[in-house]
Design a protein that fits this description.
alpha/beta, seven-stranded mixed β-sheet, five-stranded parallel β-sheet, disordered N terminus
């Protein structure tokens, strides 16, 4: 596509002053003529030091390595608005790249974007894997725990890492979680002269040195008893560290159904205990958000460990007592209140909830049940009673042992 075609849609209100060019390990030889022209014509070229070195034969303007920390990078680029600026990126700028960061504040009509093949695309091409049937996850600059929800038997995963130490650390995580037989391939410096691909299992991983530019491919094999996180609500209680303060498995499944998670929504889990409800809310979709409010420090620490072990380290934890701890929080789309709710907490949660949001409160004591009955009589909503019995040994025989019944109030704010 000629450069004139790329900017044909320009208007006076939206001149395309910013070009974002993806560059691979093959450097300038892998760029098409339009991408080359954008680099050559830029007054300022931003990028990582590696990118700037790869593109050096084409750069005619000033070079600006990314600042450290990266937080101020977008502001530095925006200060040059109106001048021809080029940003260099790894592969596809919108595949876990700088393009998505810049697009949060710069209109797409101000950009020309020339992507190169992403690391995911290159890895899939080398392995013969179908990208739509492969889990794509980035742990670059993030915790390896993010891979845990994707450890499903038979799954194929491509993981972008942060450096040469991550593949070995990922192999250790797999072994510890019961996936030691999983097959790993480490793909280094894809698309360039230093490309290298090596395979092993997680349990046998012993690569001495791995290049910092690598992607790890995992074919998941689960041993009996492996820590597999089921894809439906109601994970086994033993997957959570707790002191007895936990919404039990069956009650939790019903509670998540009542909360009805929708993509990108925010949950308040008040009196979170083990964090199990907030954690399963987050597992519903990568864009879900949740805040666990817990007044006891040891439980807050336990919630943090549970969130990491279940692969949702983004769970926000507020250590404090409701309703005071709710005052500065973002408006929730849904609120869950466990067995310790009181009138003040219910009222504060109802006020904070957005219109159309859902409030779910569970009661196990007569006092709290009476409160929910009164709220339902005054404001409407649904009341359900959940009673669970489990077969258990009674002497030398087996009988039913009933758990404490739970009364649940579900209310949608008008």
């Amino acid at each position: 596509m000629p450069l004139a075609g790329a900017i044909a849609a320009d208007t006076a209100a939206s001149p395309r002053w910013l070009s974002i060019v993806g560059i691979g390990e093959d450097g300038v030889e892998g760029l098409n003529p339009v991408a080359r022209g954008l680099i050559e014509g830029a007054e300022i070229v931003f990028g990582g030091r590696r990118h700037l070195a790869l593109a050096a034969p084409l750069i005619r303007g000033a070079t600006r390595p990314w600042p450290s920390p990266f937080d101020s990078a977008t502001a530095e680029v925006m200060r040059q608005r109106g001048r021809p600026v080029c940003v260099l990126a790894s592969g596809d700028p919108f595949q876990h790249g700088v393009g998505a960061v810049l697009a949060r504040q710069i209109d797409a009509r101000e950009m020309i974007v020339m992507p190169a093949p992403s690391a995911f695309s290159l890895a899939a091409a080398r392995l013969g894997w179908s990208l739509p049937q492969t889990v794509l996850v980035s742990v670059h600059g993030r915790t390896l725990d993010l891979i845990r929800p994707h450890l499903q038997p038979g799954a194929r995963i491509l993981a972008l890492t942060s450096g040469g130490e991550d593949p070995a650390a990922l192999a250790r995580l797999l072994v510890e979680a019961g996936f030691g037989a999983s097959r790993l391939k480490v793909l280094e410096a894809l698309g360039g002269p230093r490309e290298r691909i090596r395979g092993t299992t997680a349990a046998a991983f012993d690569f001495g040195t791995v290049g910092p530019l690598n992607t790890v491919a995992v074919e998941v094999e689960a041993a009996p008893g492996a820590r597999v996180l089921a894809l439906t609500p109601g994970l086994p209680d033993n997957l959570f560290e707790h002191d007895g303060q936990i919404t039990k498995r069956e009650i939790r499944a019903v509670t998540l159904s009542s909360l009805a998670p929708r993509r990108g929504e925010l949950l308040w889990d008040i009196g979170s205990g083990s964090g199990s409800v907030a954690i399963e809310w987050l597992l519903a979709d990568p864009l879900m958000r949740a805040v666990a409010i817990e007044r006891r420090a040891e439980r807050a620490a336990r919630i943090r460990r549970n969130a990491a072990a279940c692969g949702v380290p983004g769970l926000e934890i507020i250590e404090g007592a409701a309703p005071a701890a709710l005052s500065a929080l973002a408006t929730p789309d849904a609120v869950f209140i466990g067995g310790g709710g009181n009138a003040g907490v219910l009222d504060a949660a109802a006020r904070a909830l957005r219109a159309g949001g859902r409030l779910v409160a569970n009661a196990v004591t007569l006092e709290t049940e009476a409160l929910l009955l009164a709220r339902q009589a005054a404001f409407g909503g649904e009341l359900i009673r959940i009673a669970i019995s489990r077969a258990d040994a009674i002497g030398e025989k087996t009988g039913w042992r009933a758990a404490m019944p739970v009364t649940q109030w579900l209310w949608t704010k008008p």
